[in-house]
Amino acid sequence: MKLMRTVALAGVAKKMYDESRKPENQARIKAAIAKVRDRRHRR
């Protein structure tokens, strides 16, 4: 059972890595990070 969980997690991690390499998704990620940093800075 643990082997199947590990394989599933590896598959999800690879999908996220592949998606994060696309330029349009990189822009979204950077915008989200900037938004979080701005919220923290306001407090």
Describe the structure.
The protein is mainly α and 43 residues long. It contains two helices and no strands. It has helices at 2-20, 23-42. The longest helix is centred in the C-terminal third of the chain and has 20 residues, at 23-42.
Name the descriptors.
mainly alpha, 43 residues, 2 helices
Write a brief caption for the model.
The protein has 43 residues and is mainly α.
Order of helical and strand elements: HH
Kindly provide the radius of gyration, computed on alpha-carbon positions and rounded to a whole number of angstroms. 15 Å
The protein's oligomeric status is: single chain
Shape annotation: elongated
Topology record:
Blueprint (H helix, E strand, L loop, with lengths): L1 H19 L2 H20 L1
